[in-house]
Write a structure and sequence with these properties.
- The chain is α/β, with parallel strands linked by helices and 243 residues long.
- It folds into 2 domains: 4-129, Rossmann fold; 144-225.
- Helix content is 52%, strand content 8%.
- It is built from 8 helices and 5 strands; from the N terminus they run βαβαβααββαααα.
- It has a 5-stranded parallel β-sheet.
- The radius of gyration is 38 Å and the shape is rod-shaped.
């Protein structure tokens, strides 16, 4: 007979099939009711497999909690010391089974890296081999997709922070430039009203520009300055545009 008997509710058959397959890949022989042969009396065959199994994996779920069959098989395995309880869906495990450590496979998708799966395998192998169970070391394994998503998210955050800092620096620079230039403009009383208005428009554009389109503002500024005579020198940022 098989090393492992799986007790479950038929509503969970698809998930149990994955668990049986996973245990088989670990070198364990597994019996569940899909192993029944046509024409056999299922009650007799199930009882024989249950009694012969060295370990009994009981799969808890809301449907299993409501099943008298699962509770009965779990109770027999607990009495014999062969019980390995696992949970595949959040539920209130009935007493006295709720006092036993239960491997959590609620998020298990078939990968061995899930913490609950190696816990179950180690518990089963310990019973089958007649030894004490060992602690299962476990580290979260990130898939390539998860690593890629984390990298993209990090890049986006860095880009956003860089943009915010850059905009703040440029805005502060533009404000300081506008204030300093306005003071110089006020001192230059000899400038005509039209020229002063041209200066003010250029300074306003420069101060409000989030990315400091400096060349554009300075071009406007220079066009306004050409309409007047002798002017107070205006501070420049960057190279002078060619005439």
């Amino acid at each position: 007979m098989a090393d492992v008997f799986i007790s479950y509710c038929s509503a969970d058959r698809a998930r149990v099939g994955e668990i049986a397959h996973g245990l088989g890949k670990e070198g364990l022989s597994v019996w569940w009711d899909r192993s029944l042969i046509a024409g056999e009396r299922y009650e007799t065959e199930i009882d024989a497999a249950l009694n012969a199994a060295k370990a009994v994996v009981v799969v808890w779920s809301p449907a299993a909690v409501a099943s008298d069959w699962v509770s009965s098989e779990a109770d027999g395995a607990r009495t014999k010391g062969t019980l390995v309880p696992i949970m595949i869906q959040a539920c209130r495990i009935p007493r006295p089974f709720d006092r036993l450590h239960t491997a959590d496979l609620t998020n298990w998708k078939g990968a061995r890296g899930n913490q609950g799966f190696p816990e179950m395998v180690e518990a089963v192998k310990a019973i089958v081999e007649g030894r004490a169970a060992r602690a299962v070391p476990w580290k979260r394994r990130m898939t390539l997709a998860a690593i890629g998503s984390a990298a993209v998210a990090t890049i986006l955050v860095i880009s956003a922070l860089t943009g915010i800092v850059d905009a703040a620096v440029r805005w502060t620079t533009a404000g300081a430039f506008a204030t300093r230039s306005a003071e110089q403009l006020s001192a230059g009383d000899a400038a005509s009203p039209e020229t002063q208005e041209g200066f003010r428009q250029a300074l306003t554009e420069l101060a409000r520009s989030a990315d400091l389109r400096t060349q554009r503002a300075l071009t406007t500024l220079e066009r306004g300055s050409r309409g007047g005579a002798d002017r107070t020198p205006f501070p420049r940022i960057g190279p002078r545009p060619s005439d």
